[in-house]
Amino acid sequence: MKLLETTWNHQSELAIFCRTGRYNPIPGVNEKHVSQYRQLVYNVVDDTLQSAFPLTHHLLTPKEWDGLVNDFFSSHPCQSPQIWTMPKELWAWVANKRSPLLKKYPFLDELLWFEWLEIELFMMEDKTTACKPEGNLKKDKLVLNPEHHLKHFTYPVHLKNAKYITPSDKGHYFLMMHREKVTGKVNFTNLSPFLARMLEILSEKPFTFKELIEQTSTEFEVATDQQLEEDVIQFLDNSVRSGLISGFQ
Amino acid sequence: MVGIGFRKDFAEEFLNSSVLQPSFIEAAPENWIGVGGYWKKLLMQALEKYPLFVHGLSLSIGSPDPLDFDFLRKIKSFLKETQALVYSEHLSYAKCDNAHLYDLLPIPFTYDAVDHVSERIQQVQDLLQQKIAIEIVSYYTPVAPEMTELEFINAVLKKSGSDLLLDVNNVYVNSFNHHYDPYKFIDGLSVENVSYIHMAGHLKIADDLIIDTHGEAIIDPVYKLFEYTMDKLKKDVPVLLERDFNIPDLADLQQEIRQLAQIKKTALKQKSYETA
Lengths: 249, 276
Known about the structure:
The complex is a heterodimer.
Chain A (H helix, E strand, L loop, with lengths): L4 H16 L14 H18 L1 H6 L2 H14 L10 H12 L3 H4 L3 H16 L17 E4 L3 E6 L19 E7 L6 E6 L1 H12 L2 E2 H12 L5 H17 L2 E4 L1
Antiparallel strand pairs in A: 1-5, 1-6, 2-3, 3-4
Helix pairs in contact in A: 1-2, 2-4, 5-7, 8-9
Chain B lengths: L1 E4 L5 H5 L9 E3 L9 H13 L2 E4 L13 H14 L3 E5 L2 E4 L2 E7 L5 H18 L4 E3 L13 H12 L2 E5 H10 L4 H7 L5 E6 L3 E4 L2 E3 L8 H14 L5 E3 L8 H21 L6
Parallel strand pairs in B: 1-2, 1-12, 2-3, 3-4, 4-7, 7-8, 8-9, 9-12
Antiparallel strand pairs in B: 5-6, 10-11
């Protein structure tokens, strides 16, 4: 390290000012213009977080939002060199720090997570899987689109306007998000626990419809009647159309 | 060659029309590494048509923090995957105290910083196994300077052996904000190191301050400084039009590209230039 401690300290002071807005005099600095750095840095971070979390931004009051961004950026050292992944750090920070905002909005960490997952899925590197586009839904093994997130929430952050979510909404919610191959768009499917488990099984490896329904029914201790089979077939048919099921083996 | 910064804001329109006709595109690796889906498709489409120059944002060459070699290795893979012709970074820092700041902060113009930055540029060049171009940044305040900006830049170039990415707009902005003659600055620069030029617009926000926004059209005094720079260079170098915000009609951007190309062409006719 060829940098002297004094130079290091001056750089650190400017960086601290950018993160916190607290300025300690630095030799040679134009005190009138140095404020631009705090403003530029803060605006970049704020704009990025607003774009990533539009639902959360809409939910919180302006004072709450500004407080959240300020607290996060001043106390958390952002680790990602890629700014588009920085919002994930806000979600993790809120969840781990148990932000005071969670008292008023107990679902806030899940709302942030839901919003981040959509970005992550939309942006994720391409994953391919070997399968045929055409096949027999009832006989062939089904191949799940590998570009998906299957998640469990305790609040219906994907179903209700966040302003109207209350503690009484607490429960079990299952969401499948997948990325369409052609358009790259993210699709959302709200699932029953039965279908969520069935897709979880399918995410491990390809199974036939019969294998899937038998294994899931056994785990749920329900009988496999004709109605259940018809409902599952209908769901799988829709899943092929939407691209949640990529194809057949 | 006159290129354009490949921005997601206008990528689709750009690729689906022939309005904008750059010779190359430039992209920040931070915005594309690890990205698939829709954006990856557009980038791949663009790379089928245009050569790529890669311009980094977050390597933080001037930081007191250690270099992020993991990220640098990702950049190396990205350069290989995209067959990028050039990799450039900023003579600034964007990370300190183990925290990314997502903007470019001015390095103190000090002798130890020259040694520190030069050593890091060499480390980057060694790992990438290629020369990089380092960009003069706009700055709004000096920090504990022991020398002038010009002396600092020249010293880093001499010590590191890197190329210079000359952002002519930044020279104009800095000359206004710090009260010096931009023409004399160009005269004093190690122009033999210049391998690449950036051109952009800026915003005057106060009587004594211009911010380098990349959100406006290039103004005439910056075109004039570019013309002067081309005359000084005595060689042809690629030029990039940067437009990151407040995106106008693509026809307006093409007009700027045309004007830059015309200035280059005129300068090339006047003298016997090296070709790039």
